[in-house]
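Entry for flavin mononucleotide complex. Fields follow.
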Amino acid sequence: MIRTTFSELLGIDVPIVQAPIGAASTAQLVAAVSDAGGLGMLSGSWREPDELRALIADIQSRTERAFGVNLGLAWDQAERLAICLDAGVPVVSFFWGDPSTFVEEVHAAGAVVMQTIGSAEDARRQVANGVDVLVAQGWEAGGHVWGEVATMALIPAVVDAAGSVPVIAAGGIGDGRGMAAALALGAQGVWLGTRFLASIESAAHHVYKGAVIAADEAATAYTTLFDGGWAAPHRVLRNSTYRAWEAAGRPAQGRRPGEDEQLATNADGSAVRRYDDAKPVEGISGDVEALSLYAGQSAGLVHDVRPSAQIVFDLADEAERALRRALSTFGE
Ligand SMILES: Cc1cc2nc3c(=O)[nH]c(=O)nc-3n(C[C@H](O)[C@H](O)[C@H](O)COP(=O)(O)O)c2cc1C
């Protein structure tokens, strides 16, 4: 069994975190990962207050183990944070902004603060702010990408800067070999988005899951193309929308092919436009393939849709075998 300071801190069995994956992170997914001994993480950033309360209660009815809620600081999260802390959420993870005004409040509620960073300088700043765990997100990550350094170079630099604060590696990890590598680089745990997107419990649309499974490691792009709703760098599959924009000579916003065209309809009847930032989930109807299909380079390592508990067990088992194999290369 792989144990680290991070797994000890949270009382989890294995240092594996299911990354928040927008609306695809369901209560079922979060609870199944936590129940399997990892740490499930709900995306809270864009939920209405009542929906967030209900999702947290749903998770708590499914598992007694620790889980987290992720809040993006590109938006005001004071109300959502209060909802989390009132409900007794044990871990709060922040992304895309400065968490310093919230750290004391989270600690006063007895919860742990995680912060996503993208450089050693970022790491030093957040250690000084009092965060408990750093999530170092490499450039190969799926979804919105904060930094520009690849995981392999980022993790050791952040570990050196973090002192005794545990560092969790995010980006490019799709199987136990990646987890073993992250641990060898000094990380105390791993954080996977794309792998858990292709799980039974994820709400990602089946066409989206199929596209992730079909993708190889070269199938994604780091871009700002899907800017409807939130204009920030992200990594997506190079789908028909991306290819058409490339073929048109990569024109600027306002002159792109099919600008403002409605491609799909959400379950609530609202329109989804070609360059919208929404993650397609089950219930959406229309041309799902052409929407923003966030995924990391790790998609090349994801070949099937598995139960999320199985993903946790397989990762831990493969990582242990990979580490033993690496050790066996030593002579007497
Ligand atoms: C569909 C999707 C949605 C994401 N949404 C969030 C989010 O809401 N908050 C966040 O902190 N990170 C989000 N991320 C980024 C992940 O936290 C993580 O950094 C990334 O998935 C790691 O790379 P990987 O996909 O190769 O595992 C998202 C990633 C994906 C693929």
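NOTE: The chain has two domains: 5-201+307-327, 206-298.
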